[in-house]
Amino acid sequence: MKARHLALAVAVAAIWGFNFVAIDAGLDHFPPLLFSALRFGLAAFPAILFVGRPQVPWRWVAAVALVLGVTKFSLLFAGMAAGMPAGLSSLVLQSQAIFTMLFAVLFLRERPRRVQIAGLAVAVAGVLLVATRMGANPAAFLLVIGAAVAWGLSNVATRKASPPDSLRFMVWVSALATGPLIVLSLLIDGPSADLAALRAIDTEALLSLLYIALISTLAGFAGWGFLLRTYGAATVAPFSMLVPFFGMASAALLLGERIFLVDVAGGVLVVGGVLLGLVRARPAVRSELVRVGA
Fold this sequence. Notes:
With 294 residues, this protein is mainly α. It is 78% helix and 0% strand. It has 15 helices and no strands.
């Protein structure tokens, strides 16, 4: 990999890791569902006017929008709003690789190799270890696990869709997710809460929203898609494991979150298990592990 492309891969991982700090800041200003709706709305418009129509059947765009855009991010934002630390969320969310493999076996009839099963077991042990520290707030932890489950399912749907342009696909997924999220926000949070949040928007809220919509979603997926087209998943996928490192480091530096020994140990197991599953893996399986943005 060329030096500038290596720098791009690390930069994208850093962007996606810092994204959890931006989410934490945004949740101080917006209800979770409204924040998610605004994020996808900004990611879709005005980009949708320039990218052209999606290059895959609409049913797959709608499926990923529902599972990834609506379900995954609603659960993630709700979990973080309920008290799940930003840095730890960036780590626990990597358990999506576990559920991706399980769903690939169930729905795609893929047969994981022994090394992948071993990696799965190691990653599960890491998640369970992290869970021991969240015993005082199991609901928040389970919401983020639910987000990882939804992400794994969306990875399988994306695999079936096989979009040739990941950025264009993400723009349309964002567009189709925006409407249901607005409706859910109005029904669950209520018009008065949403309106109050919009009226009270300040610089921090605006910057966090712009970051996750434009930099993390559009710029991040554009850079990642370029790397995948240039080098392939086998070379690029391991860089995704830098995301929890940047996520936990930025949360510690900017939010003052403590990093406990159990977090480090759990992180080593989760990341190590996922990387173990990548060793000499088939391209079809590896491709499911490269969508790591939040």
